[in-house]
Amino acid sequence: MDKTSNGRSSLDAIREKAAWAQKQEQSARDRLQQAERAREFWSALESQVADEHPAQVLLLLRRADGYLRSLRASSDPIAPVLDGVRRMAEERALDVSKAFQRDFPAAVRSAGLEIDSTSRHPRYTLERGFIRVEVDDKALIARVAPRDGELTEIGIDVEPLVAKIKSEHSRIFERPLQAEPILKSMYTAYLATLRAEKREEGEEVPLRRLTNRLARNLKQFAGDEFNVDLARLIKTGNMTYEGKRMHLNHTRNQRQGILLYGLEDGGYVGFISFRREDG
Fold this sequence. Notes:
The protein is α+β, with helices and mostly antiparallel strands. It has helices spanning 10-50, 54-63, 65-73, 78-110, 158-173, 179-196, 207-217, 223-236; strands at residues 123-126, 131-136, 141-146, 152-155, 205-206, 240-241, 244-251, 268-276. Helix 2 crosses helix 4 (78-110) and helix 4 (78-110) crosses helix 5. The radius of gyration is 27 Å and the shape is flat.
């Protein structure tokens, strides 16, 4: 192999340059990610300030605290501007908090939804407890959490909070029931779980284990949507796939079971099996 002027081989020199290029590429990727995060922050802040959502503004500023500290440390002229924005947002968010117990229920009703009659501030529920909204008056945030779904933190500004609840409600409940695809995916996940555990078809498996398998198998899987779909299947009585009928058994262990929408009085469902109808 040819030698370079300092005695290294050509291959060593090329390898060194390739490693340098890789580091440059990674550095560029890191800078791009930082720029994207900054763009997302400033775009969101612009939107919330323009829409006059002070609690959302405070939440954004709180989440970007490290970034804002770096702006102050570098004497960026935007830092004092943000301090003024924060002070104004704090004052206005307190006004929102004081009126929340009056304005929030009225806004929910105006959106065509109903808060459960058992709700009391700071805890609200909808759809018989399926969607929970917990308000933190001190932090000026609300936590929206559908049963078996993902928790979202949002400022207590009434308009965006109700919009979020409405969006979650629509996603979960306003979908046509796709019975055959759901049964097929459940049966496939059931068989995969049995194979992984070297068990025979017809045996029960924990329902949570099956949903974990579904989450891996499906591109889009949401636990709250599955909860509602399974409850709908049970109510229709359509529980057979390829001659195998789905059977569900209950559990007293709330952490292992699923409390199905509209079937809460029956307790937590914990186990599932598919067996031939004549079996």
